[in-house]
Specification:
The protein is about 40% helix and about 15% strand.
Length: about 325
Amino acid sequence: MATVQTVKGPIDSSELGRTLVHEHVFVLGEEYRLNYEDWDEDQKVADAIRDLNDLKAAGIDTIFDPTVLGLGRYIPRIQKVAAQTDLNIVVATGLYTYNDVPHQFEHRGPGLLFDQPEPLVEMFLKDINEGIADTGVKAAFLKCVIEEPGLTPGVERVMRAVGQTSSQTGAPVTVHTNPHTRSGLVAQKVLGEEGVDPAKIVLGHSGDSDDIDYLSELAENGSLLGMDRFGLDVYLSTEKRVDTIVELVRRGYVEKITLAHDASCFIDYFDPKAKAEVQPNWNFRHIPEDVLPMLLEKGVSEDDIDTMLVKNPRRYFE
């Protein structure tokens, strides 16, 4: 057992229950929102409460929310939502970039114009050990990214800072990867060089690929596979995602699989109505209502589903 920090405070890992390991409550550019968005705070919070309560009613107990710097993390808004739902929300620290670090870090750090210890590590440690800003909410895990551009200097700097923080605190890591460039292998290598246990790594968006050999290699290396974009058929259809999991389970990797949608209560990347029309299944209900029955129909057992939804997310922290 282990203590897991949630938005409403610490719980025992045994209380996580059925967990979706990669979901967002809000994804938005705060600077854009403040200047251009027609934003009704009370309504957006009410919508999020409704969505998460619906998810709880559908049998999901916890979401991990890897909304970090670069994705619009604003914990006071998340606290408003968490106060009115029984669903656990577990938040992260880290930095989301495909290329460069933000200008706030461009000139500060080891060997830079202002030569000092890595400020990213200092920031991540504070979020985990003391809390995020003055909210009292502690981050429970770390998030970094390696996308199609690959291991750029900025991406590597963030990834190594995440790895160093994980090694110092024991906090697990989620990595946004691009499986079509096999970047999960790069993430395993770099984080491993910083002393991160591969079992403490979820390689996010692995489910965008049905390359079984690649996914098996990641699992053999010890990490968890984030089969976490159900409903985003633009990347891979639900049927192919399900078939990939079925084959991975058949090969003995059920203890390496986690599930999610990478969905959100609100995201400002798209017009909400257009998003619903183009990707109608990209919502929190898709896994409990559609995916789990499909897995069972194709021979995955209830115990396997319990492993993917309960045991693996719990072990991520234990």
